[in-house]
Write a structure and sequence with these properties.
This protein is mainly α. It has 2 domains: 65 residues, Arc Repressor Mutant, subunit A; 155 residues, GntR ligand-binding domain-like (Four Helix Bundle (Hemerythrin (Met), subunit A), Up-down Bundle), CATH 1.20.120. It is 68% helix and 3% strand. It is built from 12 helices and 2 strands, in the order αααββααααααααα. A two-stranded antiparallel sheet has the order 1-2. Helix 5 packs antiparallel against helix 8 and helix 6 packs antiparallel against helix 7. The longest helix is centred in the middle third of the chain and has 22 residues. The radius of gyration is 21 Å and the shape is globular. It starts with 14 loop residues before the first helix and ends with a helix. The C terminus is likely disordered. This is FadR/GntR family transcriptional regulator. It comes from Isoptericola hypogeus.
Amino acid sequence: MPESPAPPIVPPRRVSELVVERLSELIEGGRWPVGTRIPAEPELVAALGVGRNTVREAVRALEHAGILEPRRGDGTYVRAVTGLDAALGRRARTADALHVLEVRSILERGAARVAADRRDEAAVRVLRAALADQERAARDGDEQAFRAADVAFHAELVRSAGNRLLSELYDGIDHVLLRTLATDAHGRHHRDVPGHREVVDAVADGDADAAERAVGATIEAVRAYLVSDGAGSTAEAGA
């Protein structure tokens, strides 16, 4: 039997693909969070050491993937962390807001249980810091800072489960649900939402049942708000 031929020669990758990878790393690594405007094209050309057309092709590929979003006259913004996040966001925007909340509830309850079982001290410290940021913004009456801190707190709770895929699934859904809540109403409502401090304490104590109950209290409060505000038609309608 003749010997197998040598492995096929893999052609060199296009430079634009490498640029896509580099930009994706900056987004996934948190250097450019969701909502951030990325550097202008000349800055990217200088920083990456590639041609203008190469940068333009890479940015366009990330726009098609739903990760970047061009805004006429205002630059290009990060819309999602990953392609999975973007796909989930597109689907959730056409779903009933209460259905989106139900999926969020399932993911966050499960994450809280896993986080409590893990009882990772470093994750608990990050959670406590996120809670402190939220409480500080509430005391200061800074609605924008409070909203950002609230989003960060729930994201950190899910991240404390130690499962990156779970975090991506949650982020894709949570970003859409948050767009159904007007900024001012969201801030006023969430200042009185129960469960935030309780879930941190439960995770720190390794009490999975208490952690899940605390998340349940938070989710129920959000559900009551959506119902009273009439936001249960579609997520897109509330945006």
